[in-house]
# Entry
Amino acid sequence: AAADTKVITHVYVQCVPGTEEEFISASLANAASSVLEPENLRFDVLQHAEDPTKFLLIEVYASPAGPVAHKKTEHYTTWRAEVGEMMAIPREAKRYTARFPVERAGWKIGLHGE
# Structure
């Protein structure tokens, strides 16, 4: 089997209380543009069920070139500028390797039933 080239990153964010809705709005705009990038397979925005100030962003790119290109996009730089002051602590990113599903088709999402 070929080596998995996907770059899977979980980004942990804790917002300043009271900024959650603003963070969600900025993050959804970033995610909606991110999933249109050629290398992006998915971009999830999750809010903690018990602590609404905590979020998990799950980013999956087909290869290491994906996140490099993503960080050069206007939507990413806009997101970073908008949410910087909303973060109670610096965001933390952790990388993962897919074990299942491994195939690209198992990860690719579309918007609104695409």
Observations:
- The two ends are 29 Å apart (CA to CA).
- The longest helix spans residues 20-34.
- Residues 45 and 57 are 5 Å apart (CA to CA).
